[in-house]
Specification:
CATH class of the largest domain: Alpha Beta
Distance between the termini: 35 Å
CATH topology of the largest domain: Rossmann fold
Helix content: 25-40%
Number of helices: 17
Number of domains: 2
Structural class: alpha/beta
CATH superfamily of the largest domain: Crotonobetainyl-coa:carnitine coa-transferase, domain 1
Strand content: 5-15%
Number of strands: 11
CATH architecture of the largest domain: 3-Layer(aba) Sandwich
Order of helices and strands: EHEHEHEHEHHEHHEEHHHHHEHHEEHH
Length: 400
Amino acid sequence: MIHPKRPLEGIRVLEVGQLLAGPFAGTVLGYFGAEVIKIEPPGEGDPIRGWRMLDAGGTSYWWYSLARNKKSVTANLRSEAGRDIVRKLANTADVLIENFKPGTMEKWGLGPETFKTSNPRLIYSRISGYGQTGPYAFKPGYASVTEGFSGFRHLNGFPGEAPVRPNLSIGDTISGLHAVIGILLALTGRLRTGEGLGQTVDVALYESMFNLMEGVLPEFSGTGEVRGASGTTITGIVPTNTYSCADGKYVVIGGNGDSIFVRLMSAIGRADIGNDPACANNRGRIEHQARIDSAIGAWTAALPVEEVIRTMEAADVPVGLIYSIEDASRDPHYRARGMFEPVSTPFGELEIPAILPRLESTPGRTDWAGPALGEHTEAVLASVGLSSAHLKNLRSRGDI
């Protein structure tokens, strides 16, 4: 099968990070054609290999998705020989991604200044909890902590209760996406300036999540309003909520457009509310939120979810079932859009999620699932001039 050329083919990425944020950035770049060389410690490799549910060989199912399209090279960063391997590879790379605590790469002699002369084209992407500068730069910062520090967690859950965490490492993933944006901007800048120089991309976990506060901050700055948790609703937009149905399932109904609201209330037999001048716009609906939500909730509670959805769709009102991953896997729209990609693993076929955005002429794809530990060590290191004898010596000393 002949595949179209992908936009990042010819770009070499050296991924030195572990776990989630840095590796997710590498996954996105690799999906769109970059050659991603992942450095892993000899022995156990990236800890994500052993996280959560494991296959019959003891490998995390998560690994096959997060490490797709990557080449695994082992190098012991605690030995000088292992660090020298990273230097050699970095000097051939377009991009380096690391997500260690600030100062760690400098301690190993692998900081961005190391490559200013030997590889001035290198784009050096750094992901950390609090960024490379500032009074908190050297604090340990896992995504769970920095999601709280960013203000994001304050908005999740129900008023008066403990803030809720989504059951995902969302701070890592969003930070990885910010790193990808920074890397692509730096690659574009390298092309456009004519100088061909790289630069450092500094991504902080807390700042990536703080970037989601684009409406929260100006409201506070302008009025002193501190937006808080709002349960299943969103403050100041009515109606948009989650409602339970007679069969125990939940739907989201968004009827906050003025004309949509009229159609919604008419469809549920409450045209009296839909045509009430007091509810004609969002400002008025905010004042009558309890009345509106009570009417919609009473209607959905008396019907099975399929009838609720059918009625809302007939009225052209945005509605959707709260899906589990099982629901998504059975849905024909997901399948038609190619959101479930099959890959081969040593223990059978597995489905992993496609990565967006969808490009018409140069789409990304998964070529292979996450590799075995050190699967590409010899081939990659031979490509930068290390002989078989040298590699054998490195392996005997535990450097690879």
